[in-house]
Amino acid sequence: MPLTLSVGQATLTGKRNHNEDYGGAVTPEGAELATRGALLALADGVSGSGDGRAAAEYTVRGLLADYYATPETWEVPRALDRVLSAINRWLAAQGASHEPHVVMATTLSVLVLRGNRYYLGHVGDSRIYRLRQQEMTQLSEDHVWDRPDMHHVLKRAVGLDQHLMVDYTEGELQSGDRFLICSDGVWEPLGDKRLRELLLLHDEPCGAAEAIVNAADAAGGTDNATALVVRIDGVGTEGWREVLGAYLRLPVPPRLKPGQRIDDFEVLSLLHESRATLLYQVRSLGSGQVAVLKTLQPLLAEDRDSCEGLLAEEWLAKRLVSSSFPQVIPIPSNARQHLYYVMTYHAGATLQQQLDSGKHFSVAEIARIGILLTKGLGALHRLSVLHRDIKPANLLWTEDGELRILDMGVALSAGVPYPELQGNSGTPSYMAPDLFAGEAAGTETDIYAAGVSLYHLLTRKYPYGEIEPFQQPRFGEPIAPTRYRPDIPRWLENVLLRAIARDRKQRFETAEEMLLALERGDTRLVPPPQRIALWQRTQTSHWQALFLISSVLNLLFLYLLLMR
């Protein structure tokens, strides 16, 4: 079910010479409403120290436009923060270019409504309220100085400083919720009690917004008065599920054989089979294009989590527009009668297949593979996506000399809430020590897997030994790759040791940092990670042992006293 809402907006200049408030809203439809949500924003320009109206209008217009241009895989707060940081820098630079003590600054209150949740962004002394079942709650905090003579002076505003700090909060929506975003010219003369009365009196958002600004003016307000009111008429489902919900009704196809047809495709061969999925090489009967079709094992036809996972994987893969990944081929909704998706086919072999066939990789080949792999990971991480299963079997070396990252089946993205996965995903020998310790996956864990992959391609060994499923490994110091391959140059060994460091804080912070180290090679040597001293590693166990010995001695001493 889609989110449904009604919006109203009103503003009055009041007793001021001109209106420095600016509000706006975007309420898209269909897929964009489900994945990005509706956005409402109100800004109150700082008067007396520059062009407050220009700052307010630039901020709201820029936010309403640029928010919808951010990647759909980003969380709402991150998307808002990236856009607002850029707007803040521009306003701060404009203020700095004018005469001293002149700033272009504005308050800002933002509300994003998506599916069954709301997200707030706030800086300044405009306010956001929620009326739920006749209970009025102020959701934002005023950023003003806590002194009677300075209660109108802002501590924070867009454009006030080079660094912008925005309050972000979120919560669940309920049908019937009403939100009010208003400038201080509204809430100050009316107060919370009167605002609640007006919202209860006027059910329609347009009528409520007009009544509120008129009441503020009638109550003796001396400032501009602006109000945005939104009413939640129906709560939606999570964004991507709303878009893909219709596909959940499609049946999983039976196991296919070469020569059989599925919709507009002819099956050429079975490329790969796992416990959960099947990959077929197919040819489009219409265009003749050879492609890869991915679907579920027939045994999982009634497993809703697996079906949702495949659809979520397709949703995510469509957003990876990069030569580092196979590209999803769009299929008209009425042309798909089964549950699957199709992606481009690239002739070649995975790096694991090349290892299995007896290939020995040279140092130059590994450096080239590392550069292409970290470029792909960088593109992935910039979209806030974690692969979580980087290994040679998921790295395809194509006949055109490119490296493509395969299998987004266990990838994580803030924009795609996967069904809950039990335990850690990935292949144990490529999983970072922090994952076994129960820590959350991050860019450092993908970098670790990339480092182990390059190490294994060079040496056919694992830096901490092979790890079997369900094993709880103990990580000591990694074995230097030069022990197996003395021809590995020092610079490459240092890069690998940094990537596979046991302590995630000592790994490369980003894929781009590792890429730079690989590209520079021996021209700028990367230092290896610092070795942890034995006394530091065993400090905890030493204290535990001393405590145990002390306890035993105390008990023995007590026993001897009692025996006397």
Essential attributes:
564 residues, Phosphatase 2c, domain 1, Transferase(Phosphotransferase), domain 1, 3 domains, five-stranded antiparallel beta sheet, 20% strand
Protein topology:
Elements lengths: L3 E9 L8 E6 L3 H6 L2 E7 L7 H15 L9 H21 L11 E7 L2 E7 L3 E6 L2 E4 L28 E6 L5 E5 L1 H18 L3 H14 L6 E10 L4 H6 L16 E2 L2 E9 L3 E8 L5 E7 L7 H15 L22 E4 L3 E3 H6 L6 H20 L2 E2 L8 E4 L4 E3 L6 E2 L19 H4 L6 H17 L30 H10 L11 H10 L13 H4 L1 H25 L1
Helix pairs in contact: 2-3, 4-5, 9-11, 9-13, 11-12
Describe this structure in words.
- The protein is of the alpha+beta class.
- The chain has three domains: 4-237, Phosphatase 2c, domain 1 (4-Layer Sandwich), CATH 3.60.40; 246-344, Phosphorylase Kinase, domain 1 (2-Layer Sandwich); 348-534, Transferase(Phosphotransferase) domain 1 (Transferase(Phosphotransferase), domain 1), CATH 1.10.510.
- The protein is built from 15 helices and 20 strands.
- The protein has helices at 30-35, 52-66, 76-96, 184-201, 205-218, 239-244, 304-318, 351-356, 363-382, 433-436, 443-459, 490-499, 511-520, 534-537, 539-563; strands spanning 4-12, 21-26, 38-44, 108-114, 117-123, 127-132, 135-138, 167-172, 178-182, 225-234, 261-262, 265-273, 277-284, 290-296, 341-344, 348-350, 385-386, 395-398, 403-405, 412-413.
- The strands form five sheets. A five-stranded antiparallel beta sheet has the order 1-10-9-6-7.
- A hairpin with a 4-residue loop joins strand 18 (395-398) and strand 19 (403-405).
- Mean pLDDT is 90; it is low at 419-423 and 534-541.
